[in-house]
Amino acid sequence: MAIISNIGTRVELVPMDGHFHNISVALYRQADTDGAALLVHTYSARDGAGERIDSIAETMVTLGGLERRPGNRLRFPCGSEHALAVRRTFLEAVKLDLSAPRSAHPLTTVDRKSGLTIEVDPLGDGQYRVRSAGDDPDSQGPRRVGVIVNGLLKLGDMRRVVSDEDTEDCVAFECGCSHDALVGLLLVRAPNVRAIVREQEAMSARGTLSAPSAQAD
Questions:
Q1: For labelling alongside 179, which of 75, 161, 199, 211 has CA 20 to 30 A away?
Q2: What are 119's strand-pairing partners?
Q3: What is the pTM of this model?
Q4: Is there a contact between 145 and 153 (Cβ–Cβ < 8 Å)?
Q5: pLDDT at 213 (0 to 100)
Q6: How confident is the model at residue 214 (pLDDT cuts 50, 70, 90)?
Q7: Distance CA 3, CA 44 (A)
Q8: Sequence-ordered list of residues with C-beta below 8 angstroms from that of 28, at least 6 positions apart, any chain
């Protein structure tokens, strides 16, 4: 793999990639002519490391709706960084089993705590409404919707939007652009946001990206 002299500012680190010989993999932010560019990188010289990095990048395109840029970079079509959301996209891409199908998540998920189906409706201009569906004899819907909204706010660095009905079930990206694939990805983790935040904090506290001499052969 070619050595990159200026890889930018590190956004997230996975110190041990369990799907590829425990090499360390990181996501970097770089300046681009029209917005923030991102680079998936490893110092490992192990055979196949380059292909693994390319696989992670392509998975981020599928799961998070990013697009490829020249020089094997990535970016969101809107040009914004979406720092928290792209960290989650990177972590999910690295964790995904190599044999698992790569496809964008739908804008719906089953909330395990209530058994309700949680659906997200795109409203345009980067806005989304969260709602519950299914039998709800214990009237858990409003509370679980609130939990999901809070999860999306924290994981995606979204903002709350007060709807025309004066409810708090709407969220939006500051960029004002739609990111359906990204919302679908975050929606899966939103019901358990506290555990996800703890995971991210633990990941950030682990070591640094190893130089070639420290990588496993």
A1: 199
A2: 108, 131
A3: 0.86
A4: no
A5: 44
A6: very low
A7: 10
A8: 7, 8, 9, 10, 11, 38, 39, 40, 41
